Amino acid sequence: MSTDVSSRLFERAQASIPGGVNSPVRAFNSVGGIPRFIDRGEGATLIDVDGNHYIDLVNSWGPLLFGHARREVIEAATAAMLKGSSFGAPTEGEVRLAEQIIDAVPSIEKVRLVNSGTEAGMSAVRLARGATGRDKLLKFVGHYHGHSDALLVAAGSGVATLGIPGSPGVTEGAAKDTILVPWNDEAAVTAAIDLHGDDLAAILCEPVPANMNLVPPAEGFLAFLRAQADRSGAVLVFDEVISGFRLGRGGAQAMHGVVPDITVLGKIVGGGFPLAAFGGRAELMDHLAPDGPVYQAGTLSGNPVAVAAGLAQLELLNDEVYDCLEGATRIVADGFTDAFASAGVRAQVTRHGTLAGIVFSESPLHRYEDVAAADHGAYARLFHAMLDRGVYLAPSGYEVLFSSMALEQPVLARIVEAAGEAAEELAGRPDEAAG
Ligand SMILES: *Cc1c(COP(=O)(O)O)cnc(C)c1O
User: What pTM was computed for the model?
Assistant: First the structure.
């Protein structure tokens, strides 16, 4: 597999773009090697500038629920674009997308569209603070809510991958109101709320955390958070940027039957374009300008091209889609589980509905530290063993597997076969794998 063109581009990129990339994890720092520059995507397949084909298990980090260049999505975006790319004035598509989101997500009565998950998370925090008149935030170690100052504290994947504790440039002032607690730890949450409850504007979480690999909530933990938010008067914020429209049309909140006050959406909602959203009860959302005093705005918010793509993707969703996606995720997860077991590789595969993650550790995973303590060098070896066999996993052991509807049976069979060979290679038995 030649990577000459990617190598040359990466070298050139490093002269003009910090680290050669526009988002850190893309640089392959934690797995080593040359990041692949992509030429195009077709369904389940990613094709790089050297002409190598890969089965894609990243799917742009989640947005592409139907794989690359899904016809309905591309046609809708193209049709919108031909009418003009941006107006800075309201359009019908925004109303239709808002109505779709409200119909799908139990907690959302009103929703505002923004351009990225970071922006949505940051705006949700401002709304929670503005509505409660309180300053403090409670967040969980290893949960990622974008890179805004107050939330970039113990923030999982990207930051963990680079081994930076928080980030220089985040002031003490911005971080001092963020209280950190371990995930799945009721006693720690209770203690934090006993201490800070009266000052707490929001409790934020990824209801099914997927930026510290995959560490689902313990039985009853989300309902416990709902009760703690009610006890303290804090706003409960579910960041469903990954889980929204992936675990089901209603996201983690529908799956687990726990309704937050504010929901943050991104990734899938934009159909592969820069679009995200935050929404909640009407009474809360009405604190936003122009009806209320909490300011939030955006020149390109609700961009008609992104809205058209997002709508087109959401309109493809139904129960059958999620059954199919879960089936594909199960085949991939079981394929890796069986491969590790028969090769004697110490790793576990967690699956929660349509999400799955691979962690090189045999200890149970309850919180961030359990994932941090895993063998990330082994993940890097798996990543390259799979890449060599034409399967593109996320280039970090803190990330999850993002399956898509484009993974049809023969493609799934190839993933499972590659997993078997890669596991043998990791176990130091490449000859058997070849035979
Ligand atoms: C990706 C992600 C974000 C940030 O979204 P961007 O569009 O990258 O700014 C926020 N929260 C979660 C849970 C995410 O996975």
Answer: 0.96
